[in-house]
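Here is one chain, start to finish.
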Amino acid sequence: MRKMIGAVLAGGALLVTGTPALAQSAKPALGPYGYGQVKLGMSTKKAKATGKIVLKMAAGQGSCSGWDLKAHPTGKDRVGLYISKRVGVAVIFAPKGVRTPRGIGIGSTMKQVKKAYPGLKTSPGGIPYVSVPGNPKAYYAFFADKGKLEELALGLDTQDCVS
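Its structure:
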C-alpha cells in the first residue's frame, strides 16, 4: 500500500488558461508530475539546479530534507516539499493559490474533491487520497477541516518522508 501523508505542512491552488501571455504569468498546476520545474523523483542536485527551491531543514539522521519553493515560502515549522535521499523529490505541498489540473485547491470542498476525483479512497489514518490522473506513480492527499481543504499534497507512492 502506498505511504500516506500524516502531517499537514503547506498549501494553496490556481490554474489559469488562456492566451500564451497569460499562461506565461500563470502559476503552474500541482501535478501530475510536480509543480513548475520541480518534478517528483528529481534528485536534490537537479531540484536545486532549477533555482526554484531553498533548503529549510537538512536531512540530518532522517532520510529526507525539507525545502521551500522560493516563490512560496512557508511559515515556521513548515516546509513546501520533501526530498528523499532514496527517491528524490517525494512530496510537494500546494502553495497558496495553486490548483490541480482538475481545479482543486485550498478552500475546495470535499464535495468538489469527490466530483473531480471520483476514485477517492481513504487511508487507514483517515486521509482522503487518490491516484493522480496521468501519473500512476503518484497520489494526491487531501486534508480537510469542516468539509473544506486546508492542505493538499502531491506525493510519490514510494515516498519515505512522511507516513
